[in-house]
Fold this protein.
Amino acid sequence: MKPGIRIVAAVFLIVSLVCLGAVSCRDDSTVTPADTEEPNGADDVASDDVVSDDVTQSASEDEYRIEIAAIAVELIAIVNGMDQVLANPAIEDPDWITSITLAMEDITTLCDEACHIVPPDSMAGVHIVNLEAIAGLNNEMGILAEGIDEKDINLVNQASTGMWLAAEILAEVIVVSE
């Protein structure tokens, strides 16, 4: 892999991990019910609305987390499977090309699904990191396709390394989303 590509990949990984750290280290402190009580026995309806909004927000966060984790797990499994196949590229072998092409199509489909997920506001930071990893995978799919078309093993190897880095970021997204 070219030194410039290594630097870009390293910077991408570092920035993504910093973003993940910022998201996972944010302050999640909440206001306790004692801090929100109305003096003189005021109507508790507003308090019920806040609880309802918190439950709705929590449910949408859970739904989002489950959705992105499921896609990330599938993507990581495909990338891991491809990694073994890409370790010994057989660019001249039609079966090898078919196998890689099918995996690339699966990755593209899952990436498209991930891009259409709308996160709750509280999960925006995680979503940004998730989309960065997805964009990285999409970029590597282009490099991989170019490597196969040009029968360039160096491009295939470059794409394989980039896919691995994106999968590492997706693994971190899974951890943060738990």
